[in-house]
């Protein structure tokens, strides 16, 4: 992961934490740098967490990440429910095959 200075030097408006093979409770699990939460709150930076990224954010904001009842791996169909820049030129109802791999869930 980057240092906080590396992030602040970029002066981002949006940060996306993606998924990966890690679990937030594992020893030496990747994490954002100290001071990150304060920085994004002070600057109004939008943060999107996907899979592991979401679990990391939830854990550090006081939520719970636990082993899910169902382990999910493989392809799944994603459907756009709301038009926004995140999906590029996709429209509501457009579908796309994506890969998912996770076993934990955020509460």
From TrEMBL:
Pfam families: GATase. InterPro entries: Class_I_gatase-like, GATASE. The keyword Oxidoreductase does not apply. Keywords: ATP-binding, GMP biosynthesis, Ligase, Nucleotide-binding, Purine biosynthesis. One of its GO terms (cellular component) is cytosol. Residues 7-106 form the Glutamine amidotransferase domain. This is Ligase. It comes from Lithospermum erythrorhizon (Purple gromwell).
